[in-house]
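Quick one, tokens below. Sequence please?
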């Protein structure tokens, strides 16, 4: 991006993915090569600086992704890149290229997959902790709503104040519910693609070993 483009970000609204806050871009930071590094924005009068990778930039606004959701998105992208690389490796194998060279790439791919799987295991545990926390928060908010409802039904609480509080709490429950849906979706996608790649690598290994055994039988 040219330097002049960065200035077009200043003044744009910043919206947290689940609507928990809204702010506005007030500046930016560049790295040593003059690439956009951080977005500086205000949130309720507090000035924050977050890495550009945590944002989705749209025409009129920016969406800020919570760290855990951002991490899951990054993992998914890495897995998809690895899946594409494995597909390329399988095509190379069928082109009768050097088996030694392909084996080197295969071993590197397995190492990369193991590294991703290790990170995935830790990430899934963090997702589970976040999921439990969200469910506890939703239950807590529902309990508050229950007591508000009792107060309203029995005339202890003005209906206008009841509606004001009820609407705010319902909105917060919806935000948590949307985040919970994202967590479940990301968890499913990650575990599915992890199993898929594991199966790909296993099949590739079996084909490779069969080929080696056949060649050994001819000698």
């Amino acid at each position: 991006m040219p330097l002049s483009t960065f200035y077009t970000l200043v003044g744009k609204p910043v919206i947290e993915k689940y609507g928990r806050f809204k702010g506005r871009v007030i500046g930016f930071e560049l790295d040593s090569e003059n690439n956009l590094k951080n977005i500086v924005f205000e949130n309720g009068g507090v000035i924050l600086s977050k890495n550009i990778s945590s944002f989705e930039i749209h025409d009129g606004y920016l969406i800020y992704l919570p760290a855990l959701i951002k991490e899951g998105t990054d993992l998914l992208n890495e897995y998809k890149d690895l899946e594409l690389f494995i597909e390329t490796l399988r095509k190379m194998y069928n082109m009768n290229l050097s088996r030694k060279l392909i084996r080197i790439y295969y071993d590197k791919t397995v190492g990369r997959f193991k590294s991703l799987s290790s990170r995935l295991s830790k990430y899934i545990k963090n997702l589970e902790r976040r999921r439990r926390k969200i469910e506890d928060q939703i239950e807590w908010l529902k309990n508050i709503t229950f007591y508000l409802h009792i107060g309203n039904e029995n005339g202890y609480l003005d209906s206008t104040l009841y509606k004001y509080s009820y609407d705010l709490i319902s909105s917060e429950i919806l935000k948590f519910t949307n985040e919970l849906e994202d967590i479940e979706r990301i968890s499913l996608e990650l575990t599915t693609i992890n199993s898929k790649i594991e199966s790909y690598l296993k099949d590739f290994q079996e084909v490779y070993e069969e080929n080696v055994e056949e060649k050994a039988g001819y000698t």
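The radius of gyration is 25 Å. The mean pLDDT is 89.
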